[in-house]
Design brief:
The protein is an alpha+beta fold. Helix content is 58%, strand content 15%.
Length: 324
């Protein structure tokens, strides 16, 4: 599918693209999961080639950031679905050619509808593809910051949950299992965010330099430098969140170990407490003919009392040593 945007009536308007072709006055062509026919229409209008999905997925920098036939090709990995249970990384290609912006994507990053909606309310009459690219990248950076802020708040809640006192009647096994699940999900989200920020940093470095005589305007370079600094700061914050999540993971595993040790300690104490009574019962369970206590009238109750006392004494000793 192709969505063409033209400047009309003081705003950026979406124009339906039919089989007849793409409007020549379009300043932005947004190719969403395009098929071969969509690629051909875009190539006919812009006079450049459109990368395939396989080409966009390549990780070499030379395959993601390059200039061809006077057009700049820039592919970045952008985080999508951060608010859902299944976040994912989506490769998005930005192409600057002849004052027009062409975007190729196989996902729905939130920055795209945000920018389209904002510019539909009002935009300069001389809006260029370069200015649109800066708007989109600023929205992507802002969205990355919002995601990291939300992750930071979630990490604080997880931290308090780990180190708070146990609630009465709470199942510790379910509690720590839920915590481990949350920590794992947030760690995956932070990893995606760091990958996206690293990709954006490389894109800004490529966009801010002159390549084959092609360079962005001075105003755009200032915005690119500002976004590059923002991305650098966000990358540091993402690294901090990654380290904190690793600490919380280690802390949770330590808490699970303590719970297991408490359970094992109970069994160890029970085995020691029951050992003397078991010894007494074993002695008087032997089938020897001559055992003096067997002839005693109160031999049976005395043996029971001896077993109870022998079990209580180790328990009191453990309490006195504060082992329990």
């Amino acid at each position: 599918m192709i969505v063409a945007y033209v400047v009309a009536e003081g705003g950026l308007k979406a124009v339906p693209v039919s089989a007849g072709g793409v409007p020549s006055e379009a300043v932005w062509l947004d190719l969403i999961s395009p098929d071969e026919a969509d690629d051909r229409m875009a190539e006919t209008l812009a006079g450049i080639s459109i990368p395939t999905r396989e080409e966009m997925g390549e990780i070499e920098q030379s395959s993601r950031l390059y200039t061809e036939n006077g057009a700049r090709y820039m592919t970045a990995s952008i985080l999508c679905g951060a608010d859902t249970e299944t976040p994912a990384m989506v490769a998005v290609t930005f192409i600057l050619s002849g004052g027009r912006l062409i975007t190729v994507r196989y996902g729905e990053p939130r920055a795209f509808p945000t920018v389209a909606g904002r510019l539909a309310k009002g935009c300069p009459a001389a809006l260029t593809g370069e200015a649109l690219l800066v708007e989109l990248l600023e929205a992507v950076v802002d969205r990355s910051a919002d995601v990291l802020e939300q992750i930071g708040a979630d990490v604080e809640r997880i931290s308090r949950r780990i180190f708070e006192r146990d609630r009465d009647g709470e199942n510790a096994n379910r509690r720590y299992r839920a915590i481990l699940t949350h920590v794992g999900r947030k760690e995956g989200l932070v990893s995606y965010a760091r990958e996206s920020l690293a990709s954006l940093q490389r894109l800004f470095s490529f966009l801010g330099t002159e390549t084959n005589g092609s360079a962005v305007r001075k105003e755009s370079r200032a915005s690119i430098k500002s976004m590059s600094r923002d991305v650098s700061g966000l990358a540091d914050y993402a690294a901090f969140l990654g380290d904190k999540l690793q600490f919380l993971l280690d802390a949770t595993i330590g808490m699970v170990g303590l719970e297991q040790n408490n359970i094992i300690k109970i069994f160890a104490v029970l085995s020691v407490v029951l050992m003397p009574p078991t010894l007494i019962a074993s002695i008087y369970g032997m089938n020897f003919q001559h055992m003096p206590e067997l002839a005693e009238t109160y031999g049976y109750p005395l043996a029971l009392v001896a077993m109870v006392v022998s079990g209580i004494l180790p328990y009191l000793f453990f309490k006195w040593r504060r082992w329990l």
